[in-house]
Write a structure and sequence with these properties.
- The protein has helices at residues 6-11, 25-34, 45-68, 73-98, 110-126, 130-169, and strands spanning 35-36, 41-42.
- The protein is an all-alpha fold.
- The chain has a two-stranded antiparallel sheet with strand order 1-2.
- Helix 3 (45-68) packs across helix 4 (73-98), helix 3 (45-68) packs across helix 5 and helix 4 (73-98) packs antiparallel against helix 5.
- The N and C termini lie far apart (49 Å).
């Protein structure tokens, strides 16, 4: 039996999510942020993009800022590897073993991603006045709370809890 190409695996496999109807790396990245239940409750793609803009954008800028100094280049390389290796290992495992590209396999990349994002926002806050730091922190905090509330009230409560309550009442 011929071995299929890994490139083919990334673009065409049996249906996984209702949004893309393809089983690909985008589903993995989508489910890393918001997929609940038995991979049947997905948050909207707009909200996933907002999460990646804040987290991924901050991590990318943090990586550039950390690698700019000679003293912190080894740290930035190690953090980059803690993000890249779980993605590559997840791809390898999904291609060779179980064909289930799920975001939970990428959770080990989260500490490195979060550290880079926080270092970016910390570096930005260090360059401005104290009242602007507090404003910046407040905006980020309120933004995360509103983002969580939006996911909670538009996806988790109606999709997940409605099914559980319906099963209890029946």
């Amino acid at each position: 039996m011929p071995i299929p190409s890994p490139i083919l695996f990334l673009t065409f496999q049996p249906s996984c999510s209702p949004q893309t109807q393809k089983y690909s790396i985008t589903n993995t990245l989508h489910s890393f942020i918001g997929c609940f239940g038995y991979m049947n409750v997905w948050i909207s793609l707009k909200l996933v993009r907002v999460y990646y803009l804040v987290l991924g954008g901050g991590a990318a800028v943090g990586l550039v800022l950390l690698s700019g100094k000679k003293r912190t280049r080894p740290l930035s390389l190690c953090l980059l590897m803690t993000i890249v290796l779980p993605v590559l290992l997840s791809l390898y495992n999904s291609y060779t073993a179980d064909y289930q590209m799920q975001g939970r396999y990428l959770l080990s990349a989260l500490p490195g991603l979060a550290f880079l994002a926080v270092s970016c926002y910390d570096r930005i806050a260090a360059k401005v006045r104290k009242w602007m730091q507090n404003l910046f922190l407040g905006v980020i905090l309120v933004g995360w709370i509103l983002l969580f509330a939006r996911v909670w009230f538009t996806t988790i409560l109606p999709e997940c809890w409605a099914q559980a309550i319906e099963q209890i009442l029946l």
